[in-house]
Write a structure and sequence with these properties.
The chain has 106 residues and is α+β, with helices and mostly antiparallel strands. Helix content is 29%, strand content 24%. It contains three helices and six strands, in the order E-E-H-E-H-E-E-E-H. Strands 3-1-2-4 form a four-stranded mixed sheet. 12% of the residues are buried. The C terminus is likely disordered.
Length: 106
Amino acid sequence: MRKYWIHYYRSFGNTYALYYTESAEEEKHLPHNAERITRKGALKMARRESDSRKFDGAFSGFADAEIYPVNSPEDIINDRRYKLVGRIWEKVGGGKSAWKKMKVEG
């Protein structure tokens, strides 16, 4: 079951990172003071930051406008294993390892 998290990394309300986890093993990679929130709350925070970037540029850009997997790569935008669906970066099935496995079995 997917769980959503918010991590305030400074002492300001507009400095946070949004994550999701899909297993207890992934939860070990969370920052120590991450708080669990609902999916609806995470999407609301992402939308709020996105709107802030459009209309109030001076006080925005410090928070996430998308929700990331907790153990996502540094350059997730160019990583073909992930795809942005709405405001959530989803893992895409398959990839090179699946192709190699098919090639060896087939």
